[in-house]
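Q: Give me the 3D complex with S-adenosyl-L-homocysteine.
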Amino acid sequence: MSVKAKKHLGQHFLKDENIAQKIADTLSYNGYNHVLEIGPGMGVLTKYLLEKDITTHVIEIDTESVDYLKANYLNLANRIIEQDFLKYDLKTVFKDDPFAIIGNFPYNISSQIVFKLLEIRQQVPEFSGMFQKEVALRICSKEGSKVYGILSVLTQAFYDAEYLFTVPPSVFNPPPKVDSGVLLLKRKDNFTLPCSESLFFKVVKTSFQQRRKTLRNSLKTFNLSDNLKANVIFDKRPEQLSVAEFIELTSRIEND
Ligand code: SAH
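A: Here is the predicted complex, encoded as structure tokens.
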């Protein structure tokens, strides 16, 4: 018996054991005692996590997958959280303890997973796993790149991001339409934003809403002083600004 893949849950089951092992090996398993796998499905990755010297919890929205896991991974049974990762309050399970996140993620909610990670980052020193290749590359890309955008800036403000390797559609059942990519995020420790976080998010999001426009144009709604807008940084387009420059820009706006 195996789980029938459901499209609306982004289910593409990994068939390749070597890749599952390789993904499980991306985390350091250092500095925390818990790992949370998002979307374990039939447990192809979970079984390699269970071999690590760490407590593994999984969060899975699909009842059929949960039943499969309960039947096939007896020692995991009371660490299966049958919930929507996007909605569930993880403090219920982890309290204030740190935990790493891993997964072959449901691709239909990729960006939302990253935004939730940013919300709970105080507890998540490491994050690794698989997204569509394009999303994984975007998260890891630097200024000047065509795919550099909101996800790149916001993630890299708090995490060092590394694109690790590409995975072809053929190793999944059913195969997705696109290549997949595995990345690793390591939280920048001892880092705090020198400016308001909500303003930083707002500046980045507003700047990239019109990526071809200069910041002077895109940030009009912020009603900035002429003095501030005279700065050459406002001649730039968002994709030309490094993460540090976005932070610097936000601080200036905050103090305007
Ligand atoms: N890790 C498995 C399955 C990957 S498919 C493998 O590699 O084979 C993505 C998995 O995420 C599916 O099992 C799907 O049911 C689950 N999923 C989808 N949306 C979810 C959500 N919001 N919260 C938790 N799990 C989710």
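A quick observation: The pocket of S-adenosyl-L-homocysteine is lined by residues 9-14, 38-41, 44-45, 59-62, 65, 84-86, 104, 106, 109 (CB under 6 Å).
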